[in-house]
Amino acid sequence: MASLTRRRLLAAAALFPMVPAFAQTRPLTCGELTAAQTEGPFFKTNTPLRASLVDPGSKAARLAVTGRVLSARCTPVANALLDFWHADEDGEYDNRGFRYRGHQFTDSEGRYRLATIVPAEYPGRTRHIHVKVQAPGKRILTTQLYFPGDPGNARDGLYQRDLEMRFIERAEGTFDFVVEA
Ligand code: FE
Questions:
Q1: Where are the alpha helices (DSSP H) in the chain?
Q2: How far is the CA of 124 from the centre of ligand 1 (A)?
Q3: 55 Cα–ligand 1 center, Å
Q4: Residues with C-beta atoms within 5 A of ion ligand 1
Q5: How far is the CA of 21 from the centre of ligand 1 (A)?
Q6: Parallel, antiparallel, or unpaired for β 172-174 and 166-169?
């Protein structure tokens, strides 16, 4: 139990990043395509269509991830597919069912919103969220999102700073994907 509590505290600490308020007015970062990363060993197909992965009974710290899918010309991509998967609050993936797995589509302005929990780290990896993003009929981008200020980032060979979410509010990270469209 002690280690579980500690994990939760660490998860909560990850949600207090030092992000200046002017980050809100940062211009769009389209132009360059979002970097691709390995899908890792835990991807599963046929995930449920759902924007919320939250199990109402879970006491894990909640996290929202919001943003847009854009083309390299900064055009919002409507109906882009986003398929998210991540570890649970104990650093485990559900490889039998679909806990913390789900896909959704962007709205007419290219926006998405994922409601989930803060995933825990697991051995060898810093905290991260896996995602596949695909504009209709185009190539799939497979990548991972990271948490700014997480102590595990420096120890993870896959971590990339340009794949960090921005946190304007404590429990809401944002990330705009730029994909072939
Ligand atoms: Fe992973």
A1: 2-13
A2: 10
A3: 19
A4: 40
A5: 30
A6: antiparallel
Distance from the Cα of residue 147 to its chain's centroid: 9
Lowest mean pLDDT among 34-43, 97-106, 162-171: 162-171
**Rounded distance from Cα 90 to ligand 1 centre (Å):** 12
List the domain boundaries for the chain: 2-178
How far is Cα 146 from Cα 91, in angstroms, rounded to an integer? 15
Q: Three-class SS of residue 150?
A: coil
* 14-33 pLDDT per residue, tens: 554 444 444 444 455 678 99
Q: What pLDDT digit, counting tens, does each position of 104-116 carry?
A: 999 999 999 999 9
Domain 2-178 has CATH 2.60.130.10: yes
Cα(27) to centroid(ligand 1), Å: 29
Pairing status of strand 81-85 against strand 101-105: antiparallel
| CA–centroid distance, residue 23 to ligand 1 (Å) | 27
Confidence (pLDDT) at 28: 56
> How many A from CA of 159 to the centre of ligand 1?
11
